[in-house]
Amino acid sequence: MLSNPKSEIQNPKLGEYQCPANLNLYDSPDCTRLATQAATGRHLQVTSNHQASAVEVYLCEDDYPGWVSLADLDLLQPATVPYQAKLFSEFDIKKLLPEVIAFTQKAMQQPNYYLWGGTVGPNYDCSGLMQAAFVSVGVWLPRDAYQQEDFTQTIAIAELEPGDLIFFGTPEKATHVALYLADGYYIHSSGKTQGRDGIGIDILSEQGDTVSQSYYQQLRGAGRVIQSYEPQRR
């Protein structure tokens, strides 16, 4: 009996797939709110949780979960080679930091706005920009700001060097992240209500403008990227 291609799309087999094009992942099977994005070439695992309108997946590189709309399932292709994390030493990463910084500065020159869940240019959220910048040199970070804070090596603000991450938020949790440049300045993607509605540069000081002051009041600390993320879910 011939298989039904439409049925196979709606009920994909469990396993690892690749994205031949940029793909949106949502935070629920309703597929109304963006959770993250998967750039062309990323790997994902389809789980057994299939709903009427979407299929639950998680991205292999950072273990991030989400839902793929049934309408987008035809974008997925079975992975011919399983994802394998690449290892980096702290020394390797330090040499790559100028390229990481250059990525964010180039991204800032493109027309952009703040997009919740955005990890594929030109529109990013805060942690999406950090993840994309490091991925541009092959180094993976976890997806969200609080996860990036936990993943990095904690450093004092006085020890900040170009390429370090700065975290903002509440005493309980990091809700925003930026990349340190030099001389007290950092680059980040910030929202409409408290920021630039896109990528901009601010100063880590209570003497800055309204946006800089607002973030400075939420300063939590800083972290240094000394390794590339290794998936935990296989």
UniProtKB/TrEMBL annotation:
InterPro entries: NLP_P60_dom (IPR000064), Papain-like_cys_pep_sf (IPR038765), Peptidase_C40 (IPR051202), SH3_16 (IPR041382). One of its GO terms (biological process) is proteolysis. Residues 94-227 form the NlpC/P60 domain. GO terms for molecular function: cysteine-type peptidase activity. Pfam families: NLPC_P60, SH3_16. PROSITE patterns: NLPC_P60 (PS51935). Keywords: Hydrolase, Protease, Thiol protease. PANTHER family: MUREIN DD-ENDOPEPTIDASE MEPH-RELATED. Belongs to the peptidase C40 family. This is C40 family peptidase.
